[in-house]
């Protein structure tokens, strides 16, 4: 299934004219590596102390190395790293945000990895040790998550730590009901969810349920504009032209290309204090 997804993405992106080779198009990306957690691709804009988006990819073989995240023909094609590598990223992303995309090497996805490992990676990324290893200095009160598929499910779990200022959640896949303690820790965090009604991998009911629970909890706690706090873009059909068994499971690509997503992240208020130590 993962191979089929990679081939279908390749065919669609090539048909759209995305033919740049990785070796010719990644001059703005670099690799950082923490020996205790992850290797990751990094993009740094020209602005100083930018907000940071942590990109959590979906499931795959994850055997091709961290640079495969930038491959327009790869299994994670269409997310921010490959858009940046091929010059197709929205300017609102290019000009304003640092990006870090850890790579779940050797695992099917981050869902199979300890959540602490990701948190430790982000902590390292923000630390002086991380900066000495090539990580940019970022605004640690404005760190958001972008999760797709399994990465979306993990991102929601990470949000319960309340160490992130916002999140974009595409094709969320948890089929159960969140415990009350998790809802209490999530309802007032700005979240923008994307899902497609024809998603054949993770049913749209997963996001429907999450949106309803969080909006109801926010309303109970005095929020009057819950649709702006918990945003939801629910497509009737696949926006990327995918067909067959993977139809509808492409909202991570659609959201990554959407300039409004990055404008929205810029509009979100920073956390009241830095939630990540730089020591």
What's the quick description here?
The chain is of the alpha/beta class. Helix content is about 35%, strand content about 15%. It has helices spanning about 1-15, 20-25, 80-85, 90-95, 115-125, 130, 150-160, 180-185, 205-220, 225-230, 250-255, 260-265, and strands at about 30-35, 40-45, 50-55, 100, 145-150, 165-170, 190-195, 230-235.
Structure characterization notes:
This protein is an alpha/beta fold. It has an 8-stranded mixed beta sheet with strand order 1-2-4-3-5-6-7-8. Helix content is 35%, strand content 15%. It has 12 helices and 8 strands. The longest helix has 16 residues.
First-residue to last-residue Cα separation:
43 Å
Q: How many E-type strands?
A: 8
Biggest sheet layout: 8 strands, mixed
Low-confidence stretches: 1-25
- Put simply, the count of helices is 12
């Amino acid at each position: 299934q993962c191979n089929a997804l990679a081939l279908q993405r390749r065919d669609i992106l090539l048909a759209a004219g995305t033919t740049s080779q990785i070796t010719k198009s990644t001059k703005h990306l670099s690799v950082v590596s923490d020996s205790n957690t992850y290797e990751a691709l990094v993009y740094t804009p020209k602005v100083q102390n930018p907000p940071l988006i942590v990109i959590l990819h979906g499931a795959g073989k994850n055997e091709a190395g961290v640079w495969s995240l930038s491959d327009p023909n790869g299994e994670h094609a269409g997310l921010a790293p490959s858009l940046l590598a091929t010059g197709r990223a929205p300017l609102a992303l290019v000009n304003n945000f640092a990006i870090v995309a850890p790579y779940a090497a050797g695992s099917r996805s981050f869902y199979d990895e300890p959540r602490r490992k990701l948190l430790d990676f982000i902590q390292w990324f923000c630390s002086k040790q991380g900066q000495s290893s090539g990580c940019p200095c970022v605004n640690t009160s404005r760190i958001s998550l972008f999760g797709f598929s399994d990465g979306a499910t993990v991102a929601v779990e990470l949000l319960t730590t309340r160490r992130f200022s916002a999140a974009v959640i595409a094709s969320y896949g948890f089929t159960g009901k969140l415990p009350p303690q998790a809802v209490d820790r999530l309802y007032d965090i700005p979240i923008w969810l994307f899902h497609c009604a024809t998603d054949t991998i993770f049913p749209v009911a997963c996001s429907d349920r999450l949106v309803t629970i969080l909006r109801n909890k926010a309303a109970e706690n005095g929020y009057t504009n819950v649709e702006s706090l918990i945003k939801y873009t629910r497509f009737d059909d696949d926006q990327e032209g995918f067909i067959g068994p993977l139809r509808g499971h492409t909202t991570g690509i659609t959201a990554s290309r959407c300039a409004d997503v990055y404008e929205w992240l810029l509009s979100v208020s920073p956390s009241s204090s830095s939630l990540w130590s730089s020591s």
